[in-house]
Amino acid sequence: YRIKYAPFRDERNDIGGIIIVFQDITEQHKLDNMRKEFVANVSHELKTPITTIKSYTETLMDSGDIDKALYEKFLSVINNECDRMARIVRDLLQLSNLDYNKTKWKKVNYSVEKLLKEACLKLDFSLKEKNQSLCLDIEEDIPDIVIDKDGMEQVILNIMSNAIKYTPDNGEITILAKQVNDNVVITVKDNGIGIPEEDIGRIFERFYRVDKGRSRELGGTGLGLSIAKQIVEAHDGDIILRSEYNVGTEVDIILPIKTAVIHS
Ligand code: ADP
């Protein structure tokens, strides 16, 4: 609390009392801390690839006669680090557009089945690479949803690719879609490494990762879940994650069924 006080004078200018103001600054303080932590995270995330690029470039410049294979290996490291920075900047720009409501949504009636099948097709290669099985279970007569197709596809892709990334080879990914009251609930389930209980509460925060090393190795930016959450919220929906360490993870994407599409 911030406390301010001032004497209270009556018409004869005598002190008649004191005014005390208690200002709750916890919320302000929390926001300030989050902002500072975010800036520290962005700087750190970008500094790591820059340091690598710099040191590999210097080594290449200093070495006269370098073995061709080694030369190519160094260039490939530099190239990968550039890709990583590009991914981080792309995700940050997207979050910033979402923050400032600059994203232009084109919401249309869309079939849940079509949405899920198209997303699965895009991840077919990653699934096969890890020899993971995919089970798609869509309730019959499930109503259409009103979505921005590209945005909602990105949500599904982010959640599904996490399921693939954080599940070992030969694992099982299941996607369920059903109507629950006035919502369509899409659940992405895996039997992967899971998330420890103490991390679940912070998992939607920007850059929050259970294992930074592992996430980086797998090409993650630590922003996928926060982007997914923001897109779902822009559809008046919600996203919920349940997980058990070493058992698996389930993510519910809850979207309201709206019958009228308002074209703006
Ligand atoms: P990342 O780019 O690191 O995957 P995300 O925002 O998509 O970033 O996810 C944040 C973190 O949540 C991941 O680093 C990982 O630790 C954890 N996570 C997300 N999905 C899963 C999952 N299906 N199984 C286990 N851990 C997960």
TrEMBL record:
Domain (Histidine kinase): residue spans on this chain: 41-259
Cell compartments where the protein resides: Membrane
Origin: domain of life: Bacteria
Protein name: histidine kinase
Portion of the full-length sequence here: 342 to 605 of 605
